[in-house]
Amino acid sequence: MIGHLRLPCALGRGGRRVIKREGDGATPIGAWPLREVRYRANHVIRPLTPLRARPLREHDGWCDAPADRNYNRAVHHPYPTSAEQLWRGDRIYDLVLVLGYNDTPRRRGRGSAIFLHLARENYTPTEGCIALSPRDARLLLARVRTTSRLIVLG
Q: How confident is the model at residue 1 (pLDDT cuts 50, 70, 90)?
């Protein structure tokens, strides 16, 4: 919801949880800061937003290995441990809002790579992220402030 505007979204296949674990497919309940926007400049134009926005690169990844020193941080591929590829063929990461979930402080095994990204057809469940249509994602990004938080209710 943005003010009084309600937007359909997809959430994690594991439902919503207060205590999230790596790989459980759940969307974490809470109020998450908005860190930055990443986008595929070869697929979409830079979104209109007051948030920091930067183009994705082919080597961009996000570490999801709890024992790694870069757990739940951006990394570059090839990466020696498990790390999600942000440059994807399915286009759901053409527009990505990085959320401030489990980043300050980071707790190993409590979940990584929680983003707001583009929804698949029919809003099928995510791996724990929040997903919006391209139109609604752009609408949200244009209306947020740098102090805004994304709230996931229980």
A: low
